[in-house]
Amino acid sequence: MLRSPRTHSPHSQPPHTLISRQLTLISTESYFHRLPNMNSIRLRPAWCRNLAGARCSRHNTPTHCITSSRNSSSSSSAAAVSKAEANYKIIDRAADFEKKQASRPPFDNSNAPILVTKQPNPTWQYGDGVPGRDLTIPHRQIDPYAADRAMVDNYKLLISAIAPRPIGLISTRGKDGSKNLAPFSYFQVVDHDPPTFIVGFSSRPGAEKDTFRNLQETGECVINTVSEDMIEAVNAVAVDAPHGVSEWAISGLHEAPAAVVQASRVKESVFSAEAEVVDVKVLGEGKSGMSKAGVVMLKAVRFWVREDATDEGGRTVDLEKLRPIAQLGGMAYGRVKETFELPRRRWVDEVVKSERLAKMVNVREETKKD
Ligand SMILES: Cc1cc2nc3c(=O)[nH]c(=O)nc-3n(C[C@H](O)[C@H](O)[C@H](O)COP(=O)(O)O)c2cc1C
User: Fold this and answer.
1) Which residue range is the domain that position 274 belongs to?
2) Residues 270-304: tens digit of each pLDDT
3) Considering the domain boundaries, does residue 22 fall inside one?
4) How far apart are CA 36 and CA 44, in angstroms?
C-alpha cells in the first residue's frame, strides 16, 4: 500500500525546547511501611539510595527508591522457563491478519485538521444521568483469580476495558552502558507537582523486561510520546530480538542527547520527559519460570517539547502536532480525529442557574431539620 509522504522527516523536524523544573523530595519509606501485603519484600533503602542517589544529588533532585531484594527472575530454571514460554499466550500470532487487512481502507495520512464538535449532549441537566442508556442489561461478575481462569483472560479483558491507553516509549541504559528502548501502555502521568509518571511491567517467561531491570539498576530513563507516524517503528521496537541487537537500529528511530539522564531521547517524539525513579513496587514474584511483575514510579527532571508544537511559555502541546496514538484492546490502536470541549464547573456558579441543584440543597436542609 502506498502511503503519502510524512509531513516531517526526523531530519527536518523543528528543534526541541528544553524545559527544566526544580523538584522536591518524595520519601516513600513510611508509605511502604504502611502496606499490609509487603511481607515478602525486604526493603533495602540504603542500597536504593545508592542506586539513584549519586545522580540525583548531582542534580540536586533527591530520589528515594525502594525495591525488592530478590533476584530479577524468581523461578528461572531452564525447564520452568520453557514450560512458561509454551503457556505464554500474550502475543497474538494473528495468522489471518493479512487477509483481514486486505479488505480495510487505507490509513488516512492526509493530516486533515482535527475536527472540534459540540459535546455529545448539550442539553444535559444535573441529575440526568445517561439519557437513553438501557440499564436492564445485567452485568457478569468475574473472579480474576478463579481456578479455571487463565491470566491471559484477565490481560485481554483489561486491555480492552481500560482503553484508550497512552503509550510511553521508554529509553533506558543498562548499568553496563547498553541502550534499550521499549513501548509501554500500562503507563500514565499521575501528577504534575511534582511531575510524576507510572509504568507497569508484566511478567514474562524468563528474565524480567530489560526496561524494568535498567530502571532498578540505573534509576533513570527518558519517556517519549508516540505519534501516529511513529507507530510501526514503535511496534518494531517491542520485537523479542536476540540480546545485543539494537532496538534503535531495528526501529530506525533517532537518538538525541538528554540533559540530565544518561539515556537518549527519541528525536521523532514531539514531547519527552527525562525522569528518575522514585519508587519500585514488585507486584508478584512471578509464577514458575516467569519473571516478576512490577510498577515503577518516576518523576520528571526535564521536559523536551518540539519548538513548533508548543507556545512561547512551553505550557501546552498542540494536539495537531502531537497526533497521539492510543492503545486499545487486542492488537488495536486508536487515533484522535475529533474532539469536543467541556468546561469544568463550580458549584457557586451552577447552583444559581440550575433549579434541580437548588432543590437538592433544599432537600438536604429539610433532611437535616428532621
Ligand atoms: C504498544 C505496546 C505497548 C506495550 N505495553 C506494555 C506494558 O505496558 N507493559 C509491559 O510489560 N509490556 C508492554 N509491551 C511489551 C513490551 O514493549 C515488550 O515486552 C518489550 O520487548 C520489552 O522490552 P524490554 O525487555 O527491552 O524492556 C508493549 C508493547 C507494545 C507494542
Assistant:
1) 103-121+140-339
2) 999 999 999 999 997 777 788 999 999 999 999 99
3) no
4) 17
pTM over 0.70: yes
- Listed as own residue / partner, the contacts of 35-39 with beta carbons closer than 8 Å and 24 or more positions apart are none
- Report the domain count for the chain: 1
Ligand 1 center to 182 CA (angstroms): 6
- CATH number, domain of 276, equals 2.30.110.10
268 domain-assigned:
yes
Residue 266 φ/ψ, nearest 5 degrees = -95, 115
Q: Which of 72, 185, 239 for a ligand 1 pocket mutation test, highest count of atoms within 8 Å of Cβ?
A: 185
Q: Which of 72, 162, 184, 280 to mutate to test the pocket of ligand 1 (most atoms within 8 A of CB)?
A: 184
Ligand 1 neighbours (beta carbon < 6 A)? 167, 180, 182-187, 200-202, 209-211, 235, 238, 240, 327
265 found inside a domain: yes
Instruction: State the greatest distance between any 2 C-alpha atoms of the chain, in Å, as a whole number.
Output: 74
Q: Name the H helices within the chain.
A: 29-34, 45-58, 78-87, 97-102, 151-161, 210-218, 231-237, 247-251, 319-322, 347-351, 355-369
- Using CA atoms, how far apart are residues 235 and 20, in angstroms rounded to an integer? 30
> How far is ligand 1, taken at its centre, from the CA of residue 332, in Å?
15
Q: What is the mean pLDDT of each run of 10 residues along the chain (370 residues)?
A: 38 66 37 33 33 37 37 61 77 85 96 97 96 97 96 95 98 95 98 98 90 97 98 95 89 98 98 98 84 96 98 98 98 98 96 93 74
Indicate whether 58 belongs to any domain.
Answer: no
